[in-house]
Amino acid sequence: MTETPLLSISVVSHGHRALLPPLLEDIARLGREIPLELVLTENIPENLEEIVRDSGIPYRLIRNGQPQGFGANHNAAFAVSRAPYFAVLNPDLRLPDNRSLLALVERVKAAPGVAGPCVLAPGGTIEDSARHVPSVPRLFSRAVLGRRHPDYDASVPVQTVAWLAGMCLVFDRATFERVGGFDERFHLYCEDVDICLRVHLAGKAVTWDQAASVIHDARRRTTLDGRHFRWHVSSLLKLLTSSAYWRYKLNAVG
Question: Is residue 197 in some structural domain?
Fold first, then answer.
């Protein structure tokens, strides 16, 4: 890694080895347009170097001795990254073209903070990746009553939102440093809500940009795995009792 990258991309695999080759192809294609680096984290042993070393992508491989949470893994990746822009990507994403991440980089250049894309399901429907702040009534409406209408209008090209789902986020480096990265007390779930609220409170932008789109093959583990369900409930309780949550609510930031 001799050339200073414009963009550092953090991807964490927790048994996702089979999902990575298409995403690596997409990242390698983008790397032919801009200087970038990949920080790939092997959260459990799965010998990822075999599939990344011939990709042509400048990379760093982090191998964890013990599995870490979402925020801890991406914070560790940020600590070894070098670029002025930092992208967090899920391993189950596809980047249909090079414009998407480039558009998000341009967005946080123009409005420092964090930006996210329009997220599409494999069938082409728009996922609700930009949302209002969670509350007990809203959670009841979604989880019990099944009312899952979108919080924001996807026909608006660029808009400020309360928070963006963490499967694809691009930060400028200064903002990520200023807010202290992800709060590692959230092992999994709600760390994306929390960091977006803290970005707002820092006076920076949280922007949903329709010029960028990604495809997300969502796993929805919470409804299938008791451990993930417990993590989700625990994270919601942490969020709803956090100072960032109440400061945001009281000040009506964003």
Answer: yes
Q: Could you read off the pLDDT of 161-212 as tens digits, one per residue?
A: 999 999 999 999 999 999 999 999 998 899 999 999 999 999 999 999 999 9
Output the DSSP codes for 80-144: H--SSEEEEE-TTEE-SSTHHHHHHHHHHHHS-EEEEEEEE-TTSPBP--EEPPP-HHHHHHHHT
Number of domains in the chain: 1
Q: For the whole model, what pTM was predicted? A: 0.92
- Which letter, b or e, does each residue of 214-246 get, where b requires 16 or more Cβ atoms within 10 Å of its Cβ? bbbeeeeebeeeeebeebbebbbebbbebebbe
Tokens for 81? 């990254």
Residue 98 within a domain:
yes
The contacts of residue 158 (CB under 8 Å, 6+ apart) are 107, 207, 208, 209, 210, 211
Host domain of residue 234: 7-251
In-domain check, residue 102 = yes
- Report the distance separating Cα 116 and Cα 201, nearest Å: 18
Residue 2: inside a domain: no
Identify the CATH number of the domain in which residue 99 sits. Answer: 3.90.550.10
